[in-house]
Design brief:
The complex is a heterodimer.
Chain A (H helix, E strand, L loop, with lengths): L2 E4 L4 E4 L4 E3 L1 E4 L5 E7 L5 E7 L5 E4 L2 E4 L9 E3 L8 E9 L2 E4 L3 E6 L1
Parallel strand pairs in A: 2-12
Antiparallel strand pairs in A: 1-4, 3-9, 5-6, 5-10, 7-8, 8-9, 10-11, 10-12
Chain B lengths: L3 E4 L2 E4 L5 E7 L5 E7 L5 E7 L6 E2 L6 E5 L5 E5 L8 E8 L9 E2 L3 E5 L1
Parallel strand pairs in B: 2-11
Antiparallel strand pairs in B: 1-3, 3-8, 4-5, 4-9, 5-6, 7-8, 9-10, 9-11
Chain lengths: 110, 114
């Protein structure tokens, strides 16, 4: 079955620092790829997605590019804010379901 | 629009007790899902319903049952709770089947089984 591997956290950054959260996946066929974000005490919400190779998803200053040759979908942001503190889940989609990574907690400090 | 709502928000059960977690969505979505979230394990799919009147097992269905009551509502029942079912439970919905469409999540139910 599909699987997702993402870097373990917590990742602690100072405000305005550059963020990268690495994600690689294994899947049959051509899955869609997503990043979901979970703020404290809330459910998950979609941050961005890409549906085919070389697509770049972007939202709220976050970006990720679907790299089929390296089976990766790394999340980046040029300048993080305290309000970005959350848990980030890399996710593949195929067939009838999503497969989630274990999540990476991001803490941004002033 | 309320989106996806779940009740209750918190619940404490004793081993062997039963309970039903309720979920409703007001987005006219066809598909609904139940997940559990455990530390270090991401979200795991318990059951899903691709459309009204159908349900299918996910990755971890043992110890659970579901009912798709109508298009809006999808409930999860624990018949005899066990400590291993202590977790945070999320309901989600999507317009169409799982792997392509965005899923919308409820706020979760935190369940403790003593």
């Amino acid at each position: 079955g599909d699987s997702v591997t993402q870097m373990e956290g917590p990742v602690t950054l100072s405000e305005e620092a550059f963020l990268t959260i690495n994600c690689t996946y294994t899947a049959t066929g051509y899955p869609s790829l997503f990043w979901y974000v979970q703020y404290p005490g809330e459910g998950l919400q979609l941050l961005l997605k890409a549906t085919k190779a070389d697509d770049k998803g972007s939202n709220k200053g976050f970006e990720a590019t679907y790299r089929k040759e390296t089976t990766s979908f790394h999340l980046e942001k040029g300048s993080v804010q305290v309000s970005d503190s959350a848990v980030y889940f890399c996710t593949t989609g195929g067939g009838n379901k999503l497969t989630f990574g274990t999540g990476t907690q991001l803490k941004v400090e002033l | 629009n309320a989106g996806v709502t779940q009740t209750p928000k918190f619940q404490v059960l004793k081993t062997g007790q039963s309970m039903t977690l309720q979920c409703a969505q007001d987005m006219n979505h066809n598909s609904m899902y139940w997940y559990r979230q455990d530390p270090g394990m991401g979200l795991r799919l318990i059951y899903y319903s691709a459309s009204e009147g159908t349900t299918d097992k996910g990755e971890v269905p043992n110890g659970y049952n579901v009912s798709r009551l109508n298009k809006r509502e999808f409930s999860l029942r624990l018949e005899s709770a066990a400590p291993s079912q202590t977790s945070v439970y999320f309901c989600a919905s999507s317009e169409a089947g799982g792997g392509i469409d965005e899923q919308f999540f409820g706020p979760g139910t935190r369940l403790t089984v003593l």
